[in-house]
Amino acid sequence: MDRSPPRDLRSRNRVRAMAHIQRVALDLFDERGYASVTITEIAQAAEVGERSVYRYFGSKQGVVLYDEMDEVAIAAFTHLVRSMPALDAIRRALRAAADAVDDGAMHDGIRKLRIIDSDRDLRAAVAEMVASIGTTLGEAIAAGGTDPLAARIQGRCVADALTVGIDEWFRGGGEGSLWPQLERAVDVLAAGFDGRAPQSTSLSDNTTR
What we know:
By secondary structure, the chain is mainly α. The protein has a single domain, classed as Tetracycline Repressor, domain 2. Helix content is 72%, strand content 0%. The protein contains ten helices and no strands. The longest helix is centred in the first third of the chain and has 24 residues, at 9-32. One of its GO terms (molecular function) is DNA-binding transcription factor activity.
């Protein structure tokens, strides 16, 4: 099974509400610029209370950074990695995300990447978010019995590799499907740094005393 258990009604309603608010906000950002739009204006345009915007996203940065694909993929990975190797789990989690995200969400993804690329603070926030996702993935890997250090490294490598894949796709104009680029990023991880399976040699074996 390639996905986590289905969301309940409350979760589905939350996702719909967040998608609506985010899409309205992206329209405002495209029209006026990210820095010129306030939470109050987002709430008014989306016809929701400011409290709702803060409850769902936490901040204006959060309105841009939220991505349903991340939620779906992380939930699926956490579920799948209990019963299979990490790279197999991430491949299947990406397929689950691809099935769950529609074309409109992918178009909004391009818009978000443009906004992020134009704002230094947003770029810094993305770096923090990617590190946090890597930690979450690492914890899920470690829960399956993997050595904690190895799990932490693997989680961060997966998060960073996928981020590079997304960035390459964006820098290439965002043409075509994102998913082959993400699968290629996973392939690079699977091949290792030298394109071969990793060797279990100790650094101390090559150290001169």
